[in-house]
Fold this sequence. Notes:
Blueprint (H helix, E strand, L loop, with lengths): L1 H14 L4 H20 L1 H18 L2 H11 L4 H30 L3 H29 L15 H38 L5 H26 L2 E7 L2 E7 L1
Helix pairs in contact: 1-6, 2-6, 2-8, 3-8, 5-6, 5-7, 6-7, 6-8, 7-8
Amino acid sequence: MKFTNYMLSFLILISFSAGQDFRKETPQKLYGGLKYSITDRMNHLIFATSALAAISSYQYDQKVKEYALREGLLSDDLSRAGDLYGGALGHWILWTTILAHSKLTDEPKNEFWEKIEFSSLALTANALVTYLLKFGIGRERPNGGDNFSFPSGHTSHSFTIAAVTNELYGRKIGTLAYCMATLSAISRVHDNMHYLSDIIIGAGIGTIIGRGFSIQYKKRTKKHVYLLPSKKGVTLAVIF
Length: 240
């Protein structure tokens, strides 16, 4: 199951982290990221928008499915790329990018591991939330394969990656990641694995959780600059 792959990847990465402090604080950071995901005002708007859009699109699920089967939404190559990205490929691209950027910029080791842990926690939290909803709701897939259609895991996973990427590397790279996430979402409808409403909610969940963990990451790594009095006059102090 894809959820097992997420958890295994996360545990492997955390086991190689720089020190014990990262592992000791993991439960606290997981809770904190989820808390920010729930309490952030912009996330409230994103949730409301995605929920209303999913409710509105529900009545068109069958029509969109029939159109996708009849006409197709993507080429086979694009659909395959979207499926791979929303599965395991997306997070390995993210982690490879973090590693490459760290090496190229000679980034301190602790900052590299903070980014790895931040992204891993966000993806793990998204997997937990997504699969709890899948098991709890039990909607049958459009192809009748199983009862894990709602919400789309590929979509929530890829939109979490997009939100994390946007936080780490800015809007331009983030926009590219959101485009890839959208491709992954469309491919799930094209492949008859999900309904339209499944991918809309998946996109909302992934964005909300990615943003929540981004808020926590920003707060934990923010630098505060102070001018402090000293015997020699004024001292510039940078506090993390």
